[in-house]
């Protein structure tokens, strides 16, 4: 396979499928606001995920469950205004698609119409196939999500690695093939054994993007606040911090406070 990077002016769902075919890895990060989206997009990211992780990093909730559809649309519309090149994928939040395929379609349509996002992401396999079919039949691209699915945290009871046992691993493989068959353009695998993730990536034609799923998949995704070191309380094995913004920002703010208190700011050049 060639690993040459193609210069995509605009990333589409087809671009990702082409990347997999050409052996080019897919880069994906979260963003939740205009300014961050603009920075991430200009740095050359392929996919921006407007994740329901906004519930944690933007609103301070313990889980992803409390965030609403209206809030996801607000975050997504902000991101879309900042993204020029990247494909923008938006999470359907908990409760907006699981129980009723018609509600799932209404939720997806609202996201696409009101935010301008390019695709939606849903957690689950066989149990939500009717919702996925309904959304796909309306012409809305769907990214799947298997493995550790944070919206089901109370069902699992833990954030530990999934599919270590044979039965769950076999179901994961079946679900991945089902999502491909239904017409999903891509799939996220979260926190599963690397060998299993590679096996799945090699057995289906759609791109597989991993988070805590090893290097044998077609791309990687991280939460922007984690990889930039803005969140210093979260340190899973799969996380690589590329900066320590928590330390840098607290230092800068402390210096600002000191300058204001000491009357050093503003100086003569900084006033009219």
Q: What do we call the CATH homologous superfamily of the largest domain?
A: Phosphoenolpyruvate-binding domains
Shape: globular
Strand order of the largest sheet: 1-2-3-4-5-6-7-8
Give start-end ranges of low-pLDDT stretches. none
Q: Total strand count, please?
A: 8
* Overall radius of gyration: 20 Å
Mean pLDDT: 94
Total helix count? 11
Helix/strand structural class? alpha/beta
- Tally of structural domains: 2
CATH architecture of the largest domain: Alpha-Beta Barrel
Q: What does the main sheet amount to?
A: 8 strands, parallel, barrel
Classified by CATH, the class of the largest domain is Alpha Beta
Q: What is the element string, with H for helices and E for strands? A: HEHEHHEHEHEHHEHEEHH
Termini Cα gap: 61 Å
Approximately what portion of the residues adopt beta-strand conformation?
Answer: 5-15%
Q: Estimate percent helicity.
A: 40-55%
Predict the CATH topology of the largest domain: TIM Barrel
Please characterize this protein's 3D structure.
- The structure is a single chain.
- With 272 residues, this protein is of the alpha/beta class.
- It has helices at 13-22, 34-42, 54-57, 69-82, 101-115, 129-137, 153-156, 166-182, 194-203, 224-227, 245-261; strands at 26-30, 47-50, 87-91, 119-121, 142-147, 186-190, 208-211, 219-222.
- α4 packs parallel to α5 (101-115) and α5 crosses α6 (129-137).
- The longest helix has 17 residues, at 166-182.
- It is globular.
């Amino acid at each position: 396979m060639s690993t040459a990077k193609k210069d995509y002016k605009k990333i589409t769902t087809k671009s990702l499928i082409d990347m997999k075919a050409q052996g080019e890895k897919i880069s994906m990060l979260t963003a939740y606001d205009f300014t961050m989206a603009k920075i991430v997009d200009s740095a050359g990211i392929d996919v921006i995920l407007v994740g329901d992780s906004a519930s944690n990093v933007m609103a301070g909730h313990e889980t992803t469950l409390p965030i609403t559809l209206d809030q996801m649309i607000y975050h997504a519309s902000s991101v879309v205004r900042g993204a020029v090149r990247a494909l923008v994928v938006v999470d359907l939040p908990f409760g907006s698609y699981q129980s009723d395929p018609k509600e799932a379609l209404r939720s997806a349509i609202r996201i696409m119409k009101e935010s301008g996002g390019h695709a939606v992401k849903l957690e689950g396999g066989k149990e939500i196939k009717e919702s996925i079919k309904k959304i796909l039949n309306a012409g809305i691209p769907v990214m799947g999500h298997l493995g550790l699915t944070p919206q089901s945290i109370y069902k699992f009871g833990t954030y530990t690695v999934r599919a270590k046992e044979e039965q769950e691993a076999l179901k994961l493989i079946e679900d991945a093939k089902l999502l491909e068959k239904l017409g999903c353009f891509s799939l996220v695998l979260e926190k599963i054994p690397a060998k299993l993730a590679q096996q799945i990536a090699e057995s289906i034609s759609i791109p597989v993007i991993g988070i805590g799923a090893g290097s044998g998949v077609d791309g990687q995704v991280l939460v922007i606040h984690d990889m930039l070191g803005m969140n210093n309380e979260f340190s899973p094995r799969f996380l690589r911090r590329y900066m320590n913004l928590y330390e840098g920002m607290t230092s800068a703010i402390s210096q600002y406070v000191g300058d204001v208190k000491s009357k050093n700011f503003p100086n003569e050049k900084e006033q009219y």
